[in-house]
Amino acid sequence: MNTEANGDISHAEGFSTTASGGASHAEGDRTTAIGENSHAEGRRTTASGNISHAEGNSTTASGDFSHAESDSNTASGDASHAEGEGNTASGRASHAEGGGVDPFFGNPTPNLASGDSSHAEGAGTIASEFASHAEGFNTTASGAVSHAEGVATTAIGDFSHAEGSSTTASGNFSHAEGSTTTASGHFSHAEGSDTTASGEVAHAEGFRTTASGDISHAEGEGTTTAGFQNAHIMGRFGDATEANSWFIGNGTTNILRGLGAKWLASDGEMYIDGTTYNTGGADFAEMFETIDGNSIDVGYFVTLEEDKIKIATSSDDFILGISSATPSLLGNSAELSWHGRYVLDAWGRRTYHEMTIPPRKDRKGNEIIPEHSEIQPVINPEWDPKREYIPRKKRAEWVPVGLIGKILVRDDGTCQVNEYCRPNNSGIATAADSGYRVMKRTGPNQILVLFR
């Protein structure tokens, strides 16, 4: 009753329905089909977009090719879809679903998909940019192709992802997860709780850590890279002090901060805060090159000829040390690279110069890290980085020589505990009135001596 079908080839049926669009159809209770080829059904629905469809209760399909269903939803974007309760899909090809009221206070929690091709679902979510996706409770995806999920999360940066609780991913391509984390640097990642990755391509994890330097990494509790690029800190309550370096925080509170260990790029050296460095070995040794280029096996007394070594004999008045199998500290090892890699001063110290580092860009030419300067060691022009380097420990002509400490040495069977020994003509220990204290016999032809 009281129906109106005033559009060409239109059809109205039910109670107080109106079909005013060409080839439109209105049915149910107080529905209106205004758009061409539109269809309104249910109760108080409106299909005003061309080829739109509104159904359910108090829904509106105003975008062309749109679809609104369920209760109090609006599909105003072209080709959009709104369902659930109280939701709006205003972006082109957008989708809003869920909504309703929260179970805690009974407040309405409508969702909004206002970005083109966006998707908002859950309760109280907003997807406002192109291809963005917001789900969960009170989440917002405002960056293009961003994704926010969980509770009270925000994905602001383009292609960003925020998940968990109260997290924010504001940098482009950033990722924030966990609780109350912030990834504000482009390509940054924050996880854990109360962490911040503000440097470009930075990573913060753990609890209340901050990775503020570009390409820096902070983990543990209360640590920060203090704005230094490429710095890495772990542990607790500590701060990085130099770029391109590694640190272990060892503070006790956020006020009583400190470091337990660090490796600095500026000098290539390692530092520890403890009084003792513990190892499994027993002697202090250095690498020496043999005079003939051949290997010297472990357990022999050796002497010097200029700066090279050979097996000692009974006629040598100077004994350098004993070829060692298990040194606790090994100097002059050149383990990681050629000893002449850097230009040194007259005292063997590295020399440094200031270098300008060009900006780093992504594949599209967008600047990720701006131009900056660094203090770097001067590289020796004779060093060839393409040439394979073999560490001294793996080369026959280099031998670790124990210079002080408890060292195992070969003997001829004559040495006695609590007495002394010296080398014979073969470089092995033999009993003597003075020399090196014999601490223990460890085998038929092996003893432990204290060398000093």
Report mean pLDDT, rounded to a whole number. 96
In terms of DSSP E residues, the strand content is: 25-35%
The CATH homologous superfamily of the domain at 283-336 and 392-451 is termed Head decoration protein D
Question: What percentage of residues falls in helices of 4 or more residues?
Answer: under 10%
* CATH top level class name of the domain at 283-336 and 392-451: Mainly Beta
Number of E-state strands: 48
Which runs of at least 5 residues are low in confidence (pLDDT < 50)?
none
- Provide the CATH architecture of the domain at 283-336 and 392-451: Beta Barrel
Q: What spatial form do the alpha-carbon principal axes imply?
A: rod-shaped
The computed structural class is mainly beta
Major pleated sheet: 19 strands, mixed
> In whole angstroms, how far apart are the ends?
114 Å
Q: What is the CATH fold-level name of the domain at 283-336 and 392-451? A: Virus Head Decoration Protein, Chain: A
State the helix count: 0
Radius of gyration: 38 Å
Short description:
Helices cover 0% and strands 35% of the residues. Among the domains are: 1-69, 2 Solenoid (Alkaline Protease, subunit P, domain 1), CATH 2.150.10; 283-336 and 392-451, Virus Head Decoration Protein, Chain: A, CATH 2.40.300; 338-390, no CATH class. The protein has no helices and 48 strands.
